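Project standup — Tuesday

K.O.: blocked on the structure for the chain from last sprint. Re-posting the sequence here as requested.
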Amino acid sequence: MYYNQFASNVYSQNGEDGILAKLLEELGISSGWCCEFGADDGEKNSNTLHLIEQGWSGVYIERNCERWEQLNTLAAKYSGRLKILHAGVDNMGPSRLDSLLARTAIPRDFEVLSMDTEGTEFSIWKATKDYSAKVVIIEINSSIPADCAQQNALLPTAIFALGKGYEPVCHTGNLILVRQDLCGELSTPCDWSDDWCDRIRRATKLFRRKEAR
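H.V.: unblocked you, prediction finished:
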Protein backbone atom coordinates (compact mmCIF):
# COMPACT_ATOMS: atom_id res chain seq x y z
CA MET A 1 0.00 0.00 0.00
CA TYR A 2 1.06 3.59 -0.66
CA TYR A 3 1.79 4.62 2.93
CA ASN A 4 4.00 1.59 3.63
CA GLN A 5 6.81 3.28 1.71
CA PHE A 6 7.10 5.78 4.57
CA ALA A 7 7.63 3.08 7.19
CA SER A 8 10.40 3.77 9.70
CA ASN A 9 10.93 3.08 13.37
CA VAL A 10 12.02 5.28 16.22
CA TYR A 11 10.19 3.26 18.86
CA SER A 12 7.57 1.43 16.79
CA GLN A 13 7.95 -2.16 15.64
CA ASN A 14 6.73 -2.26 12.04
CA GLY A 15 7.31 1.21 10.66
CA GLU A 16 4.33 2.90 12.31
CA ASP A 17 6.38 5.95 13.42
CA GLY A 18 7.16 6.93 9.82
CA ILE A 19 3.71 6.10 8.47
CA LEU A 20 2.02 8.05 11.24
CA ALA A 21 4.29 11.04 10.61
CA LYS A 22 3.29 11.05 6.92
CA LEU A 23 -0.43 10.74 7.69
CA LEU A 24 -0.30 13.55 10.25
CA GLU A 25 1.63 15.74 7.82
CA GLU A 26 -1.04 15.26 5.14
CA LEU A 27 -3.81 15.89 7.67
CA GLY A 28 -2.12 19.13 8.74
CA ILE A 29 -1.70 17.95 12.34
CA SER A 30 1.51 19.01 14.05
CA SER A 31 0.53 18.68 17.70
CA GLY A 32 -2.22 17.25 19.85
CA TRP A 33 -3.13 14.31 22.07
CA CYS A 34 -2.51 10.59 21.79
CA CYS A 35 -3.64 7.58 23.81
CA GLU A 36 -1.91 4.20 23.87
CA PHE A 37 -2.81 0.93 25.62
CA GLY A 38 -1.36 -1.60 26.58
CA ALA A 39 1.54 0.71 26.70
CA ASP A 40 4.06 -1.83 28.05
CA ASP A 41 7.06 0.17 29.33
CA GLY A 42 6.18 3.12 27.07
CA GLU A 43 9.26 2.73 24.88
CA LYS A 44 9.42 -0.78 23.47
CA ASN A 45 7.31 -0.96 20.29
CA SER A 46 5.47 2.25 21.17
CA ASN A 47 3.53 3.85 18.32
CA THR A 48 3.19 7.23 20.05
CA LEU A 49 6.26 7.97 22.21
CA HIS A 50 7.94 9.71 19.30
CA LEU A 51 4.97 12.12 19.29
CA ILE A 52 5.40 12.76 23.03
CA GLU A 53 9.05 13.57 22.37
CA GLN A 54 7.88 16.18 19.86
CA GLY A 55 5.77 18.00 22.44
CA TRP A 56 2.47 16.14 22.24
CA SER A 57 0.36 15.28 25.28
CA GLY A 58 -0.72 11.74 25.95
CA VAL A 59 -2.45 9.12 28.07
CA TYR A 60 -0.80 5.72 28.52
CA ILE A 61 -2.76 2.89 30.12
CA GLU A 62 -1.11 -0.24 31.54
CA ARG A 63 -2.37 -2.87 33.99
CA ASN A 64 0.97 -4.56 34.79
CA CYS A 65 2.41 -3.14 38.05
CA GLU A 66 6.07 -3.31 37.05
CA ARG A 67 5.44 -1.70 33.67
CA TRP A 68 3.22 0.95 35.27
CA GLU A 69 6.16 1.95 37.49
CA GLN A 70 8.39 2.11 34.41
CA LEU A 71 5.82 4.32 32.71
CA ASN A 72 5.76 6.71 35.67
CA THR A 73 9.53 7.02 35.45
CA LEU A 74 9.19 7.74 31.74
CA ALA A 75 6.42 10.30 32.28
CA ALA A 76 8.58 12.29 34.68
CA LYS A 77 10.69 13.37 31.69
CA TYR A 78 7.81 15.13 29.98
CA SER A 79 6.71 17.91 32.35
CA GLY A 80 3.22 16.62 33.06
CA ARG A 81 2.31 16.10 29.40
CA LEU A 82 2.10 12.32 29.78
CA LYS A 83 -0.62 10.94 32.06
CA ILE A 84 -0.20 7.33 33.22
CA LEU A 85 -3.21 5.24 34.27
CA HIS A 86 -2.73 1.98 36.15
CA ALA A 87 -5.67 0.02 34.77
CA GLY A 88 -6.80 -2.67 32.42
CA VAL A 89 -9.04 -1.63 29.55
CA ASP A 90 -12.23 -3.61 28.97
CA ASN A 91 -15.57 -3.19 27.25
CA MET A 92 -17.77 -2.47 30.28
CA GLY A 93 -18.04 -0.50 33.51
CA PRO A 94 -15.20 1.57 34.96
CA SER A 95 -12.69 -0.26 32.74
CA ARG A 96 -14.25 1.03 29.51
CA LEU A 97 -11.94 3.33 27.60
CA ASP A 98 -14.56 6.10 27.88
CA SER A 99 -14.54 5.82 31.67
CA LEU A 100 -10.75 5.78 31.90
CA LEU A 101 -10.20 8.72 29.56
CA ALA A 102 -12.80 10.73 31.48
CA ARG A 103 -10.30 10.75 34.35
CA THR A 104 -7.84 12.72 32.21
CA ALA A 105 -7.67 16.03 30.33
CA ILE A 106 -7.65 14.40 26.88
CA PRO A 107 -10.31 16.01 24.64
CA ARG A 108 -13.16 13.91 23.29
CA ASP A 109 -11.97 14.57 19.75
CA PHE A 110 -8.25 13.79 19.90
CA GLU A 111 -5.59 12.89 17.38
CA VAL A 112 -4.12 9.37 17.71
CA LEU A 113 -5.32 6.17 19.40
CA SER A 114 -3.10 3.08 19.50
CA MET A 115 -4.56 -0.20 20.81
CA ASP A 116 -2.61 -3.35 21.66
CA THR A 117 -4.25 -5.76 24.09
CA GLU A 118 -3.46 -9.06 22.35
CA GLY A 119 -6.94 -9.77 21.02
CA THR A 120 -9.52 -7.67 22.86
CA GLU A 121 -9.01 -4.43 20.89
CA PHE A 122 -12.13 -4.97 18.75
CA SER A 123 -14.55 -5.25 21.68
CA ILE A 124 -12.89 -2.34 23.53
CA TRP A 125 -13.17 -0.04 20.52
CA LYS A 126 -16.75 -1.16 19.88
CA ALA A 127 -17.68 -0.12 23.43
CA THR A 128 -16.02 3.31 23.06
CA LYS A 129 -18.73 5.89 22.35
CA ASP A 130 -17.65 9.18 23.92
CA TYR A 131 -14.14 9.62 22.50
CA SER A 132 -13.04 9.73 18.88
CA ALA A 133 -9.51 9.74 17.45
CA LYS A 134 -8.59 11.09 14.04
CA VAL A 135 -6.10 8.27 13.40
CA VAL A 136 -6.41 4.79 14.91
CA ILE A 137 -3.76 2.07 15.06
CA ILE A 138 -5.28 -1.25 16.05
CA GLU A 139 -3.44 -4.52 16.45
CA ILE A 140 -4.93 -7.35 14.42
CA ASN A 141 -4.04 -11.00 14.12
CA SER A 142 -2.15 -11.11 10.84
CA SER A 143 -1.24 -14.78 11.30
CA ILE A 144 -4.77 -15.94 10.46
CA PRO A 145 -6.63 -15.58 7.13
CA ALA A 146 -7.79 -12.01 6.51
CA ASP A 147 -11.41 -13.10 6.09
CA CYS A 148 -11.46 -15.38 9.14
CA ALA A 149 -14.60 -14.89 11.25
CA GLN A 150 -12.47 -14.18 14.32
CA GLN A 151 -13.07 -10.60 15.44
CA ASN A 152 -9.43 -9.51 15.42
CA ALA A 153 -8.81 -10.79 11.90
CA LEU A 154 -8.13 -8.13 9.30
CA LEU A 155 -11.41 -8.17 7.35
CA PRO A 156 -13.86 -8.19 10.30
CA THR A 157 -11.86 -5.38 11.91
CA ALA A 158 -11.86 -3.34 8.70
CA ILE A 159 -15.60 -3.82 8.15
CA PHE A 160 -16.34 -2.80 11.74
CA ALA A 161 -14.10 0.25 11.32
CA LEU A 162 -16.06 1.32 8.23
CA GLY A 163 -19.25 1.19 10.25
CA LYS A 164 -17.62 3.27 12.96
CA GLY A 165 -16.64 5.91 10.40
CA TYR A 166 -13.02 5.00 9.60
CA GLU A 167 -11.19 4.08 6.40
CA PRO A 168 -8.33 1.55 6.43
CA VAL A 169 -5.29 3.18 4.84
CA CYS A 170 -2.38 0.93 5.77
CA HIS A 171 -1.49 -2.52 7.11
CA THR A 172 1.78 -3.14 8.94
CA GLY A 173 0.70 -6.05 11.10
CA ASN A 174 -1.40 -3.38 12.75
CA LEU A 175 -4.30 -1.87 10.81
CA ILE A 176 -4.02 1.92 10.50
CA LEU A 177 -7.22 3.88 9.92
CA VAL A 178 -8.21 7.50 9.35
CA ARG A 179 -11.57 8.96 10.29
CA GLN A 180 -13.71 9.36 7.18
CA ASP A 181 -14.37 13.08 7.63
CA LEU A 182 -10.61 13.66 7.20
CA CYS A 183 -9.84 11.29 4.34
CA GLY A 184 -10.20 14.02 1.72
CA GLU A 185 -6.94 15.50 3.04
CA LEU A 186 -4.96 12.37 2.18
CA SER A 187 -3.03 12.10 -1.06
CA THR A 188 -3.92 8.40 -1.37
CA PRO A 189 -6.74 7.33 0.99
CA CYS A 190 -6.24 3.66 0.12
CA ASP A 191 -4.34 1.66 -2.48
CA TRP A 192 -6.45 -1.36 -3.32
CA SER A 193 -3.66 -3.18 -5.14
CA ASP A 194 -3.14 -6.34 -3.13
CA ASP A 195 -5.47 -9.17 -2.21
CA TRP A 196 -6.54 -8.18 1.28
CA CYS A 197 -7.21 -4.62 0.08
CA ASP A 198 -9.42 -6.03 -2.67
CA ARG A 199 -11.42 -7.92 -0.07
CA ILE A 200 -11.85 -4.77 1.99
CA ARG A 201 -12.88 -2.85 -1.14
CA ARG A 202 -15.58 -5.42 -1.92
CA ALA A 203 -16.70 -5.46 1.70
CA THR A 204 -16.85 -1.64 1.66
CA LYS A 205 -19.14 -1.66 -1.36
CA LEU A 206 -21.39 -4.23 0.32
CA PHE A 207 -21.46 -2.27 3.58
CA ARG A 208 -22.30 1.00 1.82
CA ARG A 209 -25.06 -0.61 -0.26
CA LYS A 210 -26.65 -1.86 2.96
CA GLU A 211 -26.30 1.59 4.55
CA ALA A 212 -28.02 3.21 1.55
CA ARG A 213 -31.14 1.02 1.84
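K.O.: great, moving the ticket to review. Residues 195-212 form the longest helix (18 residues). Residues 7-163+179-212 form a domain with the Rossmann fold fold (CATH 3.40.50).
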